[in-house]
Amino acid sequence: MKRNITLSAEENIIQSARKRAMNENTTLNAEFRRWLEKYALRSQNAQDFLALMDRFAYVNAGRNFSRDEMNER
């Protein structure tokens, strides 16, 4: 279920954002929804990353590599 929220911002910022959205063939509402979804998921993504790093904590190369060695291709 979608719900409405109310935001406030300076009029000139709103107008600039609407122009940009129009130039990008979208709407300010669609862009805000996209941002809100990313914002809401950001902490979950960080938690997922940390859990992944914990799963690979056992990996040990056996020594430290020099900068040149790490940059070899």
Task: Give the termini separation.
Answer: 51 Å
What is the domain total for the residues? 1
DSSP strand count? 0
Series of H and E elements: HHH
Number of helices: 3
Into which percentage range does the β-strand content fall?
Answer: under 5%
Which structural class fits the helix and strand makeup?
A: mainly alpha
Low-confidence stretches are none
Largest sheet: none
Q: Give the C-alpha Rg.
A: 22 Å
Helix content: 55-70%
Mean pLDDT across all amino acids: 91
Globally, the shape reads elongated
Give the arrangement of secondary structure elements.
Elements: H1 11-23, H2 28-55, H3 67-71
Task: Give a quick precis of the structure.
With about 70 residues, the protein is mainly alpha-helical.
Detailed description of the structure:
This protein has 73 residues and is mainly α. The protein is elongated, with a radius of gyration of 22 Å. The protein has three helices and no strands. It has helices at 11-23, 28-55, 67-71. It has one domain (11-71). It is 63% helix and 0% strand.
List the main descriptive attributes of the protein structure presented here.
single chain, 73 residues, mainly alpha, 3 helices, 63% helix, 0% strand
